[in-house]
User: Fold this.
Amino acid sequence: NDRRLAVTADGNSKRCYLSPYWGAASIVSEAVCNLVSSAAEPLAVVDHLQFGDPSNPEVYWTFKEAVRGIADYLRALNLPCVGGKVSFYNEDSTTSTAIKPSPVIAAIGLLEKETPKITPGLKDEGNDLIIVGETGPEMGGSEYYEHVHKTVEGPVSQVQLSSERKFMKSVLKLIRSGQVESAHDISKGGLAVTLAEMAIQGQKGFSVDLETIPTVSKRRIPDVMLFSEPPSRFILEARPKNTRRILEKLKMSKYPAA
Assistant:
């Protein structure tokens, strides 16, 4: 019937190790962002929960908190979890060291017949790049901390559960409007990695001004702007003639964008 499906799977054991509740919630958020950035309406998820020995009180607590984070996010978006699997006793047999809490979320979304096909690769030279969402110093569990500073630490950013559903619906409507040429959610690795992925897939270069990024920070530290990993952010590519209209719609909805 010319409808299409979008499918994604996401996980982030570093974030869940630092905060099983917010780490798990952010994994579901990333899965939803993946679907929305491809113009798909999220329909449902399944989970795969991988933890150590549940008789260890600390392991069981991380499991309980991860389930609570997933459930609270799904309630906020009114999405069902239609199935899943739990895998316990994932640990080193010699030292009894458990793996990091490792929930994985697979999500499915629906694209209607008239929905434009949106992919992450940059499309045309001369188009504008629009960043949607606020960037702050939220580096806890980031790729940058692990691979550059060789550490897994820091507070994990919190998803705004009260406003997430409305925000996702607004961005989805915008991406489906025909005014967006390509779209990509900003997740692991932050803005720099997202832009690099869009450039590689589209075989196009880009130039951005970090001074224009909406931020709650008092100082625009370049590594924070480039590699911070707050949830629920997007990059949209648009033709210059559509850019003002997109920014006006986002401003009317009170969503930070530039």
Remarks:
- The two ends are 38 Å apart (CA to CA).
- Helices lie at 13-18, 20-37, 57-77, 143-147, 161-175, 190-202, 222-227, 240-252.
- The first strand starts at residue 4 and ends at 11.
